[in-house]
Amino acid sequence: MAGMSVLRSAGAMISRLQCAQRWALRTDGLLGRGAPAAAVPVRSAGGGKRVFVIRPSLYHDNKFKKYLKFYILLGVIPAGICISLINIFIGPAELAEIPEGYVPEHWEYYQHPITRWLSRNVFHPVDESYERGMTILYNENEKRQLRLYEDVARASMRKKGDGPWYYYETLDKNLIDHEPKSVPDQ
Predict the structure, then answer these.
(1) Largest CA distance in the chain
(2) Is 27's pLDDT higher than 70?
(3) pLDDT of residue 185
(4) Which helix (H) or strand (E) holds 10?
(5) Which region, left, alpha or beta, applies to residue 45 given φ > 0 means left and ψ of -120 to 50 means alpha?
(6) Calpha distance 111→99 (Å, rounded)
(7) DSSP-based three-state secondary structure for 28
(8) Which end of the chain is more exposed for a tag (fewer CB within 10 A), N or C?
């Protein structure tokens, strides 16, 4: 906020200087006018109608901006310090030969230590995610096959007349109104 007020005052000063330079370099040879007279303050006595200008409150806007700045800095400063310390003291991993018979973990393929930590503790391994997706596809395929078998069985029962294909589901008994009524069939 202080930076904005400094920028605003600097901009006003620059515009005043540019205006003064334009007046100093101006030559009105035909009209015979020289440099303008000194600026005289104009007094506004307020003779107009008194008006109370209604503006929306800026309290909540300013409070939100202060909280936003505070919480961004609350997260950015420690994260920046932590990342800088990790980059300085730990640094990126170096590529080395894999010993025979050793199977690297999935996080050991990443170079940066923060990425390795996130891969190990936060995210799921790629092969585990793949297996989960394949399990979902397998279960959905099993459901689809069971629905097909059920449709074939219903069609067979309907064709041969040996199954409950004519059965209709009844309404739930909670939907039946058992209250006494003054007029029948209502």
Answers:
(1) 118
(2) no
(3) 66
(4) helix 2-25
(5) alpha
(6) 18
(7) strand
(8) C
